Amino acid sequence: MHEVVQALILGILVGGIYALMASGLTLVFGIMKVINVAQGALVILAAYLSYALWSHLGVDPFLSIVIVTPVMFVLGVAVQLVFVRSLRGPEASELSLLVTWALALGIEGILSVAFKTTFRLSLPSYADTTWTVLGYQIAEVRLLGFVASGVLLALLSLLLTRTRFGRAVRATVQNPTAATLLGVDANRVQTLSFGLGVSMAAAAGAVYGVIYPFNPGSHYDLISRLLSIVVLGGLGSIGGAVFAAVGMGVVESLVAVEISPIWSSFSFFVVLIAFLIVRPQGIFGLRERVL
Amino acid sequence: MTRATGFGLARGAAFAGAAVAFPFVFTPAWIVNIGVLTLMYAALATAWNLFSGYTGYITLGQAAFFGLGAYTLGITFEHVGIGSGYNPFYALPLVGAGVALASLPVAWIALRTRQMTFAIVTLTLLFIVQQLAFNLHSLTKGSTGLMLPTPRFPIDSYDRPFYLAMLAILLVALGLCWLIMRSKLGLTLLAIREDEEKARGLGIRVTSAKLVAWSLMVWLSAMVGGVWAYYLTFIYPESSVDPLVMIGAVLMTFLGGRGTLWGPAVGALVLVPAQQYMITRLGASEFYLVGYSAVFMVVLLLLPRGILPSLRDALDSWRERRRTHGSKPVVHGEVRA
User: Fold this and answer.
1) Which residues in chain A (25-44) have CB-CB distances under 8 A to chain B?
2) How far is B179 from B175, CA to CA, in rounded Å?
3) Chain A: closest CA distance from residue B97 (Å)
4) Is the pLDDT of residue A175 over 60?
5) pLDDT at position B218, please?
6) Do B124 and A224 touch, CB atoms closer than 8 A?
7) Phi and psi angles of residue B335, each rounded to the nearest 5 degrees, phi first
8) Quick one: pLDDT at residue A291?
9) Is the CB of A98 less than 8 angstroms away from the CB of B254?
10) Exposed/middle/buried for B332, CB within 10 Å: 0-12, 13-18, 19+?
11) If you average pLDDT over each of A2-11, A153-162, B327-336, which comes out highest?
12) pLDDT tens across B276-309, in order?
């Protein structure tokens, strides 16, 4: 029993970080029907930026979120303007899948050139600190990561519900044509939201680099998880993504404890496939509407 | 037989004849090796096109079936023994059929979802198969890799049997595509691509049509994987379930022209030699990856319809201009399959 609770705690802490990455992915899909396969590569890129700041300038990895996120926001806006916006027509969604995949390969290539393929990990002084609460182990970096993710998700939620921009975003998700007719600048909303999605990846990347060792090829593992999360949660649903991310964290760590760590990431794919039999549209996804 | 059919058959026969003659004319091993790789990608791209190009459902999991074919052949070697020399090639259709059969339940589930979700689910399939290859240690030897027995072919024409095997699969794939495009199944797949809901509403059996195209795609990909495994005689999870191989096949299909018969093969003919040149010049990873993604971007953003459709359009409008020289205005935009 002790093991199971410990696994639950670990799973929830890990799930929080994945929730942050996945929320950016699903937000972008909700607005422009674009799956950003490069989200994983962008997380790794941010992890490298944060790592470089920490190892060269001694900036604390969690503090570096404040620097990395705006930089990556600008990068995200640029990516949208250069690569994604030019895709038009009925097959834009499918093409965007491939374009962002090519982008992911490009980022992987550039990172391999710049940093080689050795695994890195940001190790601040408190990296090995662990608290024991009621007999359960909680690593400080994981808790900090969870808290940071929670704060950022709360900020995202405030941005979407309390601001004029957020209202424009939600309107665009619900009905792009009507939103445009009512004076929402669709292009601007799309560009800014893409930047926003990428900055979620950036913030999560800074956290990721403290918890997991990473190398340029790590994005394959990340993106396969992130895509499963957003599909399970229902494409376009941020709440669903958060829910599915925590679910994934819990399932994986339970399997790791009860069966074997080598089957943990596999187990989540099985959950996904099994779930799609019952609900092809994901947990909170809407049924496909025929236009 | 119409004139167009006769012309198409003649074109196919000419291609087959030239391709068969190639390794007997150009015998150096490195040339035949590039030939093997070109045909491998051409067959993979044609198979991808058979499903994704015709139905519009983009699958990103083709490498999973390539890898399953490779491992199935390797494991069969290990446990059953299927002879040496040419014999393993004859087992391939069965190997492919086995993989196709095993993939059907997952395909059925995945095809219930929207097109975007479908693409993602097939992508996760790729990682599932890779994980299985790592974890099922007793069958696959995990990350150590699986050794296949060395094929006993004469050393000075060692690559030739593999070249011919890949060519045979490519010709079967092209033949299947050609037959499908002229059949009711082809029309059904086209209807799915254009408006699946409407097609379903009209009583067309869309699910079974998608599953047939899917199984053919898997069957062909698994056979290609089998030949590849036998050619290299050593497979491990990262190399046999490689997202780069699949994305290469997709790139070639887009370059040549999706939904056309010859497009994917043309794309492979253009890109594989270029790719091999880049690998020898730039090294296998790092810069090569950057160059690859740059080529991909350029194709997707500047030439999303592909070489063949663009050429055909240019040819059509040139003919049209000559025919109606200086008379009535030309009307463009006819519907074509």
Assistant:
1) 29, 33, 35
2) 6
3) 23
4) yes
5) 94
6) yes
7) -90, 130
8) 33
9) yes
10) exposed
11) A153-162
12) 877 777 665 567 778 778 888 888 777 777 788 8
Is the model's pLDDT at A130 over the cut of 80?
Answer: no
More confident residue, A284 or A189: A189
Q: By residue range, what is the domain housing residue A212?
A: 15-223
**CB contact (8 A) between residue B124 and residue A263:** no
Largest CA distance in chain B: 75
Answer yes or no: do B115 and A94 touch at CB < 8 A: yes
Best B103, B254, B297 residue to mutate vs chain A (most A CBs within 10 Å): B297
Q: Would you state the structure tokens that stand for residue A173, as one six-digit string? A: 């998700």
A 109-128: CB under 8 A from B? 109-110, 112-113, 117
Residues of A in contact with B285 (CB under 8 A): 109, 112, 117
Looking at the DSSP bridge assignments, the partners of residue B315 are none
- The size of chain B, in residues, is 337
A181: part of which helix (H) or strand (E)? helix A176-181
Question: How many domains does the structure of chain A reveal?
Answer: 1
Residue A112 lies in a domain: yes
User: Is A133 part of any domain?
Assistant: yes
Name the burial class of residue B329, with classes exposed (0-12), middle (13-18) and buried (19+) by CB atoms within 10 angstroms of its CB: exposed
pLDDT tens, residue by residue, B25-70: 777 878 888 888 899 999 999 999 999 888 888 888 888 999 999 8
In a domain, residue A23? The reply is yes
Nearest CA in chain B to A117: B286
In chain A, residues 204-233 whose CB comes closer than 8 Å to chain B: 220-221, 224, 227-228, 230-231
Chain A residues within 8 A of B114 when measuring between CB atoms: 235, 280-281, 288
Minimum distance, in Å, between the CA of residue B126 and any CA atom of chain A: 9
Residue A214 lies in a domain: yes
List C-alpha distances in Å: A254 to A125, A259, A268.
29, 8, 11
Q: Which two tokens stand for residue A252?
A: 């994986």
B226 or B9, greater pLDDT: B226
What is residue B23's three-state secondary structure?
helix
CA–CA separation, A109 vs A157, rounded Å? 34
Q: Indicate the pLDDT class of residue B3, thresholds 50, 70 and 90.
A: low
Of B109, B116, B254, the CB nearest to A93: B116
- Most confidently modeled range among A67-76, A261-270, B14-23: A67-76
A53-75, pLDDT tens digit by residue? 888 887 888 888 888 899 999 99
B107-153 pLDDT, tens digit per residue, is 888 887 777 788 888 888 888 888 888 888 777 777 777 777 777 77
User: A133 is written with which tokens?
Assistant: 């609460």
What one-character-per-residue DSSP string does B28-44 give? -HHHHHHHHHHHHHHHH
Alpha-carbon span B305 to B318, nearest angstrom: 19
